[in-house]
Structure formats: structure tokens, C-alpha cells
Write a structure and sequence with these properties.
Blueprint: E1 11-14, E2 23-29, E3 45-50, H1 66-78, E4 83-87, E5 92-93, E6 107-108, H2 124-137, H3 139-144, E7 149-154, E8 157-163, H4 166-172, E9 179-185, E10 192-196, E11 199-203, E12 207-211, E13 219-220, E14 228-238, E15 248-251, E16 254-257, E17 262-266, E18 277-280, H5 285-289, E19 295-304, H6 306-315, E20 320-334, E21 337-352, E22 358-367, E23 384-392, E24 399-400, E25 405-410, H7 413-416, H8 422-425, E26 431-433, E27 443-449, E28 458-461, E29 467-472, E30 475-481, E31 515-518, E32 528-534, E33 544-558, H9 576-581, E34 585-589, E35 594-605, H10 624-632, E36 637-641, E37 658-667, E38 673-675
Main location: secreted
Enzyme class: hydrolase
Subcellular location: Secreted, Extracellular space, Apoplast
């Protein structure tokens, strides 16, 4: 079809090795340096660099170290790459029911350099910015050479050199370097010293050094000088307190009015509209719902004889519902009572049930939690049930439920009445919810809240709830579920070696997601309507609105770090004196609209520890805290040169000095920058 359209420009096809000649096959993955297109006439394209990974309900949170991402990108350009694209550079949110999977969480933060709230994820963002600045310095040589020269430097060390003839280079650019090189150490364990063009270079394990002039190292993928940002979701406004409606609540010297009550409404476990239909057989879920809702009710009646009751009592057995295969969630009701739930992706269902003599109502509620969104023939994955659906354990044998008549009802009554909108909410028959009420299943809740002050992104804390969906002012903010990740599988993260999705996992033993993004554009100053549909039971009185910001920033830069890439230009590689004057720098900055309110720790010398756990080492410049505070406090950003003279002299001769800083950020109406 693509070929017959005769578009006039090349098509790009990801991960398709047999793409026709006029279609460029491209690479998606964690590493693409070893990929080559299926024709020498096609450029080497990396269409999806997976710099993180998605999270699933009940799963650990994946994290990918920035040192490894930088290594992968540098290796790609080292080995002849032409085009590179991050997936994802900016994280997002799967609002409504748009999350896929199945079982992908509502957040699609993806550990991206910019998170789903629009905040920078540091050091990932800063380190990759430096990486691409270094690659940009190599541009004249990279674009002028078809393929690099390969030089073996050691058993697991190699160089790729892009060397341009001087006449060709001067014609195209007019200035700069005629040679750029990438030196790689692919050993996962050992630092290597290599000799390249007569000079010795030290390469950390699993790293690439970039030399835009084939002499000067301006960047190494394993040496991170960018700041670390600690983001917090802080208390701003509770949705409930046991106070009167008219009483103001003081929150961080701000007055907010807090609603006194929640209201509640039960969802019927039965047919609720005229749009139901009855037919013999068990129908496929999506063919019935057309994906208008996650929920599909199947209702039938089972007649139990006195002989069946006697058979079960005499043999001490129970009837069992058996389904060959089911996805994603099944809720089983008998005579209006929830008697079991099954969760999984095409898993077998074996659920004992209790039936009474006479007619029994059997309700099967199948749910989708995101549809299949990748892979060949994904449209055939389907939902609901596959195979036989039957009852076993009866005196006269099993009952094939596909021969029964079933009544089908799509969705929830509250969902189709749109009681989550401001207008329709007023028409529903809500009742007051008391704080001591027991958690209730299949229940709607609503309240009103005021928007947090300021401009920080807003999050809704639903950690006290079970599973369901949430709306704010009629906007569907997504599914929520406090399903807990396994307690094991999280540990110390080592960037060295090939990354996989279970490496460097975090958040073990905690719910995969409890914070849900509410865009400020969906909020008004006061009286924002919040509506929840809760399936399994939770406590809405513990729900709160929180604001998200970077409150703590840290950095650690030593004399052995390279000067900031912001100070380089192509002409610098000709002027050796300019290079000699450059020194490493520490760059600190708060989020937009915030300033550095205090310096919690600063030590120039041999500090120990890591962010939020720094301590002074044996070598320490006594004026470190005062100098850094003077340069940074009250500023939106600051730059500190890593230089003995900046701290009044060398605090300990013969040692490599490091500056470690921890600072706090706070909202401010004005920002400025400073340099020490």
C-alpha cells in the first residue's frame, strides 16, 4: 500500500529487516550501534531509543541509568549512525482509558528526561544535554565522512576516527577540526588506559570518550557532572477534615476552604438500562463493548435441584465455575454477592461457588485494563473469554454455559449517565458518606476541592483507594489501582553492562502508582468536582491534592571532570590557550519560578556520601558553605568553578578535590543567576 501511494519521499519502517528498497528499515531498542540497514544505500536510523520503560500495575518501576543511555547513543554515532530519536524524551499521562498494554499504568512517565509533569529529570536531562553538545562539536567531521576508520586499542577497547581532508573541510565549513574520534571501552568491569595518536587516555568501564579534535576529551559517558534533582509531592490541600464548611484551614500560611463531606452512590450489580440484549452463547468482550467501556456484564440464571444439593453435601464438594482462558479482570457475582475475582492475561479460571436450591443469578463482569497495543496481529488478541465456559460438579455432570441465554449490559450506569460531569452530577441521587463508613465495592464518590496555590504541577494522591477510575471537572484523569509490586527485585543499580527492563528496578513492595496528574488547565480556583468510581473498596477521606516540584538539588563535580560543554566552540579546538584556561564547573538550577532558598551542605575537598547523605571528608575547605551560599542563595541558578583559587587556595595538596553541594529550592516570583 505504501509503495502504491507513490509518496515521492522515502518511507521509514521500524524493525522490518526485509523492507523494500525504497523503504528505509530502522532500529528500535536499547542499543542500535550494531544495527545496519538492509542496503548500503540507506542511512543508519535509530527511530526509538528506549531511554526508559513503561510500568505495569503491580509491577516494579523501571529505571535506566543515564550513563548507559549516553554510552548507547555515543556508540551509535561512533559506529556510523545518521539519525537518533529518543522514546520517550518527554513523559506523559494516559488520560482516560488510553493506556495500553494490557495492564500499563496511567502514568507514562517512562523515566524520561522530562517527566509527565513537565519537570526535568536530573541528572538524565543534563547529562544527555552535554552528550549532544559534544556530538555537535564533531558535526563537521561526522557529516563529511561516509564511514569512520576503525582502530583497535585493546582487547575490549576501540576507536572510530572521522578524519576529513583539510581542503575538503575548509571548503565546506571554513573553520574547526578536521578530525573527530570516539574512544570506547566496552569492558563492563575494568577501567582501561589506551594510547591513541600518541596520547594516553583513561576510559572508565562501559564508556565512550568523545574527542571532537582527535586530541581533547570533552565528554565521557560515565562521568556525570549534572545535578541530581529530588522531586517531592508535597501536602497542599486535604480533601477532608472534620471541620465545618465555613472554617478556614491554614496551610503553609495560605487559607483554603475544605469540604466537610464526601457523597456516595451505589452502582447496580444488574441490568440497568434498556440497551441490554439477551442471546444464547458467550460473546467476545470487544465485539460487544466496541471499547466504549472497560466493563461488560454477563447475566444468566442457574437452576439447582434438590438432588444437586444432596450430591454436594454427601460428597463434600462444591460446584465450580471453569473458564479456559480470560483477560484482564473477572468479577464473579452469585445472587448479588461478589464471591471471587481473577486477574491475568489469558489465564484459566477455576472458581468454587456456592449455589442455593432453585434459581441463582450468576453475573460475570469482565473488564479490560488497556488493550494490546503492539505486536503482529494485535487486533486478534481480543478480550473477555476464550474457550469453554462451564460449571462443573453437578450430579448429572458439567453444564456448558455457552448453551445458556445470557443478558449483556455494556458499561456502568453512572458512566453512561455521565454523573462525573458538573451538570449530570447534580441530577444523581447522592447520599452523604460518614467518615466511619466501611469500604464499599462498586461505589461512586464525589466531593469538591480548591486548586492548590501557585504554579507547581498538581497530583491527586489516591493511595487510600483500591481500583477504579477518576474524573476532575468532567475530565477523565485515568484508571487508578493500588496494586502492590513484589518486595524483591530492587537493589543497587550498576550502569555497567547491557540494560534490560528488570535491571535497576525501583519501588519494590509499594503500589505501582498512587499519584495521578491533574493538568492545571483542567482546574479552576475553587469548587473543582472530583468523582471516583471504586470497585474494590477504599477510604476517600484520606485522598488529598498535592503539588509536585523539585525541592532538593545536589551535585558533585571534581577537578577531573571536563569543562562544561557550554564553554566550547569549534574555534576552541584550534586555540590551545583557550582550552588550558577552561576548568570544570558545577551548574545548579531550580525549576522555573523557583530559587535556591538555602545551601544545606557544601564541601570542597574530599566529601563522602551521595545526595541527601553528604558528609565532610578528611579534606575540607572551611569556607565552602559560605562561598557557595553567597554565589547561589536567592538565585534561580548559579555556576561554581571547580578551582582552588575560588575557595581561597588548595585545602589538601596531592589530592583530587571535589565539590559536593546540596541545596533547597522554593517558589519565588523572580529569579536570577550567578557565577562564582
Amino acid at each position: 500500500m505504501a509503495l502504491e501511494l507513490d509518496a515521492g519521499v522515502p518511507w521509514v519502517m521500524c524493525q522490518q529487516a526485509d523492507a523494500p528498497d525504497i523503504i528505509i528499515n530502522a532500529c528500535n531498542g536499547f542499543y542500535c550501534d550494531g544495527f545496519w540497514p538492509n542496503s548500503a544505500n540507506k542511512p543508519k536510523l535509530w527511530t526509538e531509543d528506549w531511554n526508559g520503560w513503561f510500568a505495569s500495575w503491580g509491577g516494579r518501576t523501571p529505571k535506566r541509568p543515564v550513563e548507559d543511555i549516553a554510552f548507547a547513543v555515543a556508540r551509535f554515532f561512533q559506529r556510523g549512525g545518521s539519525f537518533h530519536n529518543y522514546y520517550m524524551y518527554f513523559g506523559g499521562t494516559n488520560f482516560g482509558r488510553s493506556s495500553g498494554g494490557p495492564f500499563y499504568i496511567t502514568s507514562y512517565d517512562y523515566d524520561a528526561p522530562i517527566d509527565e509533569y513537565g519537570l526535568l529529570s536530573q541528572p538524565k536531562w543534563g547529562h544527555l544535554k552535554e552528550l549532544h553538545a559534544a556530538i555537535k562539536l564533531c558535526e563537521p567531521a561526522l557529516v563529511a565522512v561516509d564511514s569512520p576508520q576503525y582502530i583497535k586499542l585493546g582487547p575490549m577497547q576501540e576507536a572510530h576516527v572521522y578524519r576529513v581532508k583539510e581542503s575538503l573541510y575548509s571548503t565546506q565549513s571554513g573553520n574547526g577540526s578536521s578530525c573527530s574520534a570516539f574512544l570506547a571501552n566496552i569492558d563492563e568491569h575494568k577501567t582501561a588506559s589506551v594510547t591513541f595518536l600518541g596520547q594516553v587516555y583513561k576510559l572508565p568501564p562501559w564508556s565512550v570518550s568523545i574527542l571532537p579534535d582527535c586530541r581533547t576529551t570533552v565528554f565521557n559517558t560515565a562521568k556525570v557532572g549534572a545535578q541530581t534533582s529530588i522531586k517531592t509531592v508535597e501536602f497542599d490541600l486535604p480533601l477532608f477534615r472534620n471541620i465545618s464548611v465555613s472554617q478556614p484551614l491554614m496551610v503553609q500560611n495560605k487559607i483554603s476552604y475544605v469540604p466537610r463531606t464526601w457523597m456516595t452512590l451505589k452502582e447496580p450489580i444488574s441490568v440497568w438500562s434498556k440497551n441490554n440484549f439477551t442471546i444464547q452463547g458467550v460473546l467476545e468482550h470487544l465485539n460487544v463493548t466496541k471499547d466504549h467501556s472497560d466493563y461488560l456484564w454477563r447475566i444468566t440464571r442457574i437452576n439447582v435441584s434438590a438432588e444437586d444439593i444432596s450430591f454436594w453435601e454427601e460428597n463434600q464438594v462444591s460446584p465450580t465455575l471453569s473458564i479456559d482462558s480470560m483477560r484482564d479482570i473477572l468479577r464473579i457475582f452469585v445472587n448479588g454477592q461478589l464471591i471471587g475475582s481473577v486477574i491475568g492475561h489469558w489465564v484459566k479460571v477455576v472458581q468454587p461457588i456456592q449455589l442455593l436450591q432453585g434459581y441463582n443469578d450468576l453475573v460475570l463482569l469482565s473488564q479490560t485494563v488497556g488493550l494490546q497495543n503492539y505486536g503482529a496481529f494485535l487486533e486478534k488478541d481480543g478480550a473477555g473469554f476464550k474457550g469453554q465456559v462451564k460449571l462443573t460438579g453437578f450430579k448429572n455432570g458439567e453444564i456448558d454455559l455457552s448453551e445458556y441465554s445470557w443478558t449483556y449490559q455494556v458499561g456502568l450506569r453512572g458512566e453512561f449517565q455521565k454523573i462525573y460531569t458538573i451538570d449530570e452530577s447534580e441530577k444523581a441521587e447522592w447520599t452523604d458518606l460518614t467518615p466511619g463508613a466501611s469500604p464499599s465495592t462498586f461505589t461512586w464518590y464525589k466531593t469538591f476541592f480548591d486548586a492548590p496555590n501557585g504554579e507547581n504541577p498538581v497530583a491527586l494522591d489516591l493511595g487510600s483507594m483500591g481500583k477504579g477510575q477518576a474524573w476532575v471537572n468532567g475530565h477523565h484523569i485515568g484508571r487508578y489501582w493500588t496494586r502492590v509490586a513484589p518486595k524483591d527485585g530492587c537493589g543497587k543499580c550498576d550502569y555497567r553492562g547491557h540494560y534490560h527492563t528488570s535491571k535497576c528496578a525501583t519501588n519494590c513492595g509499594n503500589p505501582t502508582q498512587i499519584w495521578y496528574h491533574i493538568p492545571r488547565s483542567w482546574l479552576q480556583a475553587s469548587n473543582n468536582l472530583l468523582v471516583l468510581f471504586e470497585e474494590t473498596g477504599g477510604n476517600p477521606f484520606e485522598i488529598s491534592v498535592k503539588s509536585r516540584s523539585t525541592q532538593t538539588i545536589c551535585a558533585e563535580v571534581s577537578e577531573s571532570h571536563y569543562p562544561s560543554l557550554q564553554n566550547w566552540s569549534h574555534s576552541d579546538f584550534i586555540d590551545q590557550n583557550s582550552k588550558n584556561k577552561m576548568t570544570p564547573e558545577m551548574h545548579l538550577h531550580c525549576d522555573d519560578g523557583h530559587t535556591i532558598s538555602s545551601i544545606e551542605f557544601a564541601s570542597y575537598g574530599t566529601p563522602r556520601g551521595s545526595c541527601q547523605m553528604f558528609s565532610q571528608g578528611q579534606c575540607h575547605a572551611p569556607n565552602s558553605l559560605a562561598l557557595v551560599s553567597k554565589a547561589c542563595q536567592g538565585k534561580g541558578s548559579c555556576v561554581i568553578r571547580i578551582l582552588n583559587s575560588a575557595f581561597g587556595g588548595d585545602p589538601c595538596r596531592g589530592f583530587v578535590k571535589t565539590l559536593a553541594v546540596e541545596a533547597k529550592c522554593a517558589p519565588s516570583s523572580t529569579t536570577s543567576s550567578s557565577q562564582l
